[in-house]
Each structure stands twice: as C-alpha cells, then as structure tokens.
Amino acid sequence: MIALLGSLLGLIGGLIPNLLKLWQDKKDKEHERSILKMQMEMMKAGHIQRLEEINATADIEETKALYHSMKPSGILWIDALTASVRPVITYCFFALYAYIKIPIVVSSYKLASTDYITFYIRVWSDMDVAIFCTIITFWFGNRTFQKIFIKK
Predict the structure, then answer these.
(1) Could you say which of 71, 105, 131 is where a domain stops?
(2) Residue 131 near residue 97 (C-beta atoms within 8 A)
(3) 108, 119 contact by CB (below 8 A)
(4) Distance CA 106, CA 120 (A)
(5) pTM of the complete model
(6) Which long-range contacts (CB under 8 A, 24 or more apart) does 49-55 make?
(7) Helix axis angle, 116-123 relative to 85-111, nearest 10°?
C-alpha cells in the first residue's frame, strides 16, 4: 500500500512542475494578449488623432490659400467690387423674391377673408422656408455644418 501511495505521489510530484509551467504559460499568453490589445487600441486612437490633425491642417491651408488668392489689386473700386459680389447677388435675389412675393401677398390678402396669422401661415410656403434656410445656412452656418458633418 505504501509502495502504491509512494508511486502515486512520485507520478503526481513529477507532473506538478509541468502543470505549473502550463498554467504560468497560459497566464503569460493572456497577459501578452491584453497588452497587444491595449497597444492596438492606442495605435488606433493615435491614427484617429493624426487624421484629425491632418484634416485641421488641410482646413488651415485651404483658408490660407483662399485668403492668398484674394490679394487686393490696389485699385479701390475693383477691390470693393470683388468683396461685394456675394452680398450683391444675395441682395439682388432678395429684391427679386420680394418683387414677386409682395404682390402675391397683397392680392391674396385682399381676396382672403381670414385673420392675419392664418393668412401668413398659408402664404409662407415650404418653398419660402427652404429659400430662407438656404440663405441663412450659406451666410452663417457653412463652417459650423461642415465641422459637424465631417466629424466621425
């Protein structure tokens, strides 16, 4: 009986160091996997940050190029005309819109037998809202919307 017990302990005693090595190897590989995973996440974050830096640099360079291309000519009236092209076009289209819309509103109001609020709700159409939103977005929201939609 003691011989059998001694043989069993000898067998188990020989296996214990190998089992400990296997267990330690498994823990080491798990640790290496977790380190690699963290390194990959850090590299991904670094790439995203670098991409954002590249986009910011590109925006800055684009703005510089736009300002550089619009150097003043030195002739006052040409420089003023160049700077006023967009506002003048906006004013012209607004004047055209008012020229068309005001007679429609006046004639419709004369024919309508309703209060002011109901009348203006009918006259202010979806197309009017679209035109108004387009102008406001063009003049005030271009950079804001660009930054919102480009961000990921």
Answers:
(1) 71
(2) yes
(3) yes
(4) 11
(5) 0.41
(6) 55/150
(7) 130
Residue range 24-53, pLDDT digits in tens = 889 989 999 999 999 899 888 888 888 889
Q: Are residues 80 and 67 in the same domain?
A: no
pLDDT of residue 152: 46
CB atoms within 10 A of CB 131: 15
Find the domain containing 17 and state its range: 1-71
Both 61 and 84 in one domain: the answer is no
Our measurement of the distance from residue 19's CA atom to the centroid of its chain's CA atoms, rounded to an integer in Å, reads 54
* Distance in angstroms (rounded) separating the CA atoms of residues 48 and 64: 24
pLDDT in tens, 59-101: 888 878 777 766 777 888 888 887 788 788 888 888 988 898 8
Closest among 65, 37, 58 to 146, alpha carbons compared: 58
Residue 74 backbone phi and psi in degrees, to 5: 100, -15
